[in-house]
Amino acid sequence: MGISGKAWHRLAAAVAVPGAAIGALAGFSVAPAMAGTAQPKPYGIETLHGHIVGAGLNPRVPVYESGVFSDRGYIDLGGDGHTIYLNQGNIYIGTSNNRHTDKIDREVCTSAHTETFDYHITGGSGLYKDADGRGSARIQVTTALRRNNGICDGNEPVPGTSSLTIDARGSFRHGHM
Domain residues for 86? Predict the structure, then answer.
């Protein structure tokens, strides 16, 4: 949702913390998107939520949309990151005001990388071909870090502890209704 392929690699690298391989976040298995039922209304507030946890992070994140319509699908943060693939069609987005923060909590030995940005819907396909709207979104990746000699090591992510969450909320208008 707004993270390009290049930014996805930066995101993965930031969570793995300097010196750790991006491969430590790879190999996560994503279950197929569940069937969704699109029930469009003319306009309103739309929310998107996605979450994965596991041995690593797959850039294809299952998502659920609700509000103006309800549908399930995924977003591929490793691809163009600007298409939400849903059962009833696709939604295309552009982004602006991208900001990111990195944090290591040495007391509990975790790291977090957060990206926030504004988005605007640039069109769609299928049921969403005339969609438009705008809002804000947040993507956060967290992982536990190893302790070496009792000290949190920012270069050592613990396999299987990575988690990615996507949350977005904004206006949505279905143009042809």
Answer: 5-174
Sorted by sequence, the CB contacts under 8 Å of residue 149 that are 6+ apart come out as none
pLDDT in tens, 58-117: 788 999 999 988 999 999 888 877 899 999 999 999 999 999 999 999 889 999 999 999
Helices first, then strands: H and E counts in the chain = 1, 9
| Whole-number Å distance between alpha carbons of 161 and 111 | 11
Torsion of CA 63, 29, 23, 3, to 10 degrees: -10
The pLDDT confidence band at residue 37, using thresholds 50, 70 and 90, is very low
Looking from the CA of 22 toward its CB, the CA atoms found within 13 Å total 12
The residues facing 124 across adjacent strands are 91
CB-based contacts of 150, cutoff 8 Å, min separation 6:
none
In this structure, how many other beta carbons lie within 10 angstroms of the beta carbon of residue 131?
Answer: 25
Coil, strand or helix at 127: helix
Report the alpha-carbon distance of residue 136 to residue 120 in Å, rounded: 9
Report how many domains make up the chain.
Answer: 1
Kindly list the distances between the CA atom of residue 177 and the CA atoms of 40, 82, 129, 145, in Å, as whole numbers in the listed order.
Answer: 8, 24, 11, 50
